[in-house]
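Appendix C: a fully annotated inverse folding record. The material below is reproduced so that readers can follow the format used throughout the book. The structure is listed first as C-alpha cells, followed by the designed sequence.
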C-alpha cells in the first residue's frame, strides 16, 4: 500500500515563471530525477512533459531562479554531487544544453536585473576560525565580464542567503544581511554597483530574525519586504532612498504565513495564511499604497494552500480528502479557477 502511494507522486519542485504557461518540475524516472518541461497551453497532464537536459538531479540540488524568454534559458541554483558547492547554472530549452554560469565555492546571494542584462552573485569563502565571508560580483550577461563589487570581511552585518533587488537604472541593489552571520538579527543594505559603498536601511528596532526583500524592481520611493518582527511574517515598507529608518508595518497578521508574492508592476501582493485549527488557508489580496494602510480582500480555502514561486497567482493545495493540485486563480473580487494541474499519477479515487 505504501509503495502504491509513493509511486503516485513522482513529481516535485514545480515552477511556473511569471507571465508564462511553462511548467518546470522534477520527475522520478527509476533511480534518477530529470528536469521536465510542459507547455500548459498544450496540455495539463504532467505525463506529456519531456526532459530538457541530461542531468540527474538526484545527484545535485535544484532551485529554480528565473526564466528568460528572450534567450529561452532557465536559470537555477545547483551543486555538484550534492557537495553544497552552489553555483548558478542555465538550461537552454532549445538546445537542451546545461551550462555553468558562475564559478564560486558557495553562491547564496543572486539576482538578475529586470532585463537579464546584469547578474549579481556572491561567492562565500572560509576564513580563519571557521568564519565565512562573501565577495559580491557583477556580471555583464552579454560580454561575460565579471567585476568584484565588494567584500564583507570587515562588515558587522554580512552576506548570507539573499535575493537581489535592482533599481531601474542599475545604480544600486538592495540585499538582506545577517549580523555576524548568527541568524539573530537581519537587516537590509543598499550597495552601489559602481563604488561598492553600502548603507544600512533599517534601524535596530526594525531588525528581526528574518528579513527578505519582496520587491525585485526598485522604481520609486516604495520598497516592500517581509519580516517576522512581530513574531509572524508580515509585509513592511521603507523608502529605498533614505538611510537607517524605521520600517512601517503594512500588514499585521498574527497567524503563520505560508507564502507571499508581489506583482511589482501592479502594486498587488498575495499572502496565504495557515489556519490549522479549521483546516483552512486564508488567501489575502493586498492592494499596496506606499506606507498607507492597504485595502485587503480575503477568501478562505479548504485545506493546506501555499503560493507557488511564480509571481502569477498559482496555489499549491492539498487536504485530507484530495492529493496535491496546482491551481491558477483569477482574483477579481471573487476567486475563479482558470487552470488546474494534478500533481499525482493515476486515479484520484485510488
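Designed amino acids, in order:
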Amino acid at each position: 500500500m505504501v509503495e502504491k502511494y509513493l509511486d503516485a507522486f513522482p513529481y516535485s519542485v514545480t515552477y511556473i515563471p511569471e507571465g508564462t504557461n511553462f511548467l518546470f518540475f522534477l520527475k522520478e524516472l527509476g533511480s534518477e530525477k530529470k528536469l521536465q518541461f510542459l507547455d500548459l497551453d498544450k496540455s495539463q497532464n504532467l505525463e506529456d512533459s519531456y526532459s530538457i537536459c541530461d542531468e540527474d538531479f538526484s545527484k545535485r540540488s535544484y532551485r529554480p531562479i528565473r526564466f528568460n524568454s528572450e534567450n529561452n534559458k532557465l536559470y537555477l541554483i545547483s551543486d555538484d554531487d550534492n557537495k553544497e558547492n552552489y553555483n548558478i547554472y542555465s538550461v537552454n530549452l532549445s538546445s537542451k544544453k546545461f551550462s555553468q554560469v558562475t564559478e564560486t565555492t558557495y553562491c547564496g546571494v543572486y539576482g538578475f536585473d529586470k532585463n537579464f542584462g546584469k547578474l549579481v552573485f556572491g561567492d562565500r569563502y572560509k576564513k580563519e576560525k571557521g568564519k565565512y565571508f562573501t565577495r559580491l560580483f557583477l556580471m555583464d550577461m552579454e560580454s561575460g565580464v565579471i567585476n568584484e563589487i565588494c567584500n564583507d570581511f570587515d562588515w558587522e552585518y554580512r552576506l548570507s542567503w539573499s535575493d537581489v533587488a535592482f533599481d531601474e537604472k542599475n545604480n544600486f541593489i538592495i540585499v538582506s544581511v545577517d549580523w555576524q552571520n548568527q541568524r539573530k538579527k537581519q537587516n537590509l543594505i543598499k550597495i552601489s554597483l559602481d563604488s561598492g559603498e553600502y548603507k544600512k536601511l533599517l534601524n535596530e528596532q526594525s531588525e528581526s530574525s528574518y528579513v527578505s526583500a519582496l520587491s525585485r524592481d526598485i522604481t520609486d520611493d516604495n520598497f516592500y519586504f517581509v519580516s517576522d518582527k512581530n513574531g509572524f511574517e508580515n509585509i513592511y515598507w521603507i523608502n529605498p532612498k533614505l538611510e537607517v529608518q524605521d520600517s512601517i508595518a503594512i500588514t499585521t497578521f498574527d497567524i503563520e504565513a505560508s507564502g507571499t508574492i508581489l506583482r511589482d508592476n501592479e502594486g498587488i501582493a498575495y499572502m496565504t495564511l495557515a489556519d490549522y485549527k479549521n483546516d483552512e488557508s486564508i488567501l489575502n489580496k493586498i492592494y499596496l499604497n506606499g506606507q498607507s494602510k492597504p485595502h485587503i480582500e480575503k477568501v478562505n480555502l479548504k485545506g493546506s494552500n501555499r503560493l507557488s514561486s511564480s509571481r502569477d497567482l498559482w496555489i499549491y493545495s492539498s487536504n485530507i480528502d484530495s492529493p496535491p493540485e496546482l491551481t491558477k486563480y483569477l482574483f477579481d473580487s471573487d476567486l475563479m479557477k482558470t487552470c488546474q494541474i494534478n500533481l499525482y499519477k493515476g486515479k484520484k479515487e485510488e
